[in-house]
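dumping this here before i forget
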Amino acid sequence: MEKVVLKLFFIALFMFMPLLHSSSIEENIELDQWFQKLDNSKPKLTRFHFYFHDIVAGPGQTSVIAVPPPKTIKPSTTMFGQVSVFDNPLTKGPELTSELVGRGQGLYSYASQEEFSLLLAMTIVFTGGKNNGSSVTILGRNSMFQSRREFPIVGGTGDFRLARGFASASTYIANASLAIVEYNVTVIHY
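structure:
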């Protein structure tokens, strides 16, 4: 019986291999066409505004501690070394019930021994509208208690290939269970 199942598995695998291969060929053709047009393309400027909902406790939690702060001889008052992973909703307005525009997915690490400062690595994934499936990636220092923080855009996918630019963030509200952060993002892409 096991031999029959194994044979059927390999037969099915070899039947579907050409389908997988043809889709990768189509992707390569599409990418080749995009690169050929790139020489004559002019940069585009796109701006976004949204609210990031980081829910760290309670129902609907979207952020979890993946690595707790290390146990050291001198405990850190800044949570130095802690790493959290998140999959946070991005909405048009500050209310969680506002229209969803995408997800903020990534991690932040408490990276300073002297102040509450994070290293933020976040991909903004658009889940609707004309940019559905495209993304923009942010990487930078987040000094949480500054009224306005700025981060570099280090790349993008889909509509935002070769993206660069910046994002500014301001805390809208923060308490023990959540933080809502307002983002204004400026992206240059092709």
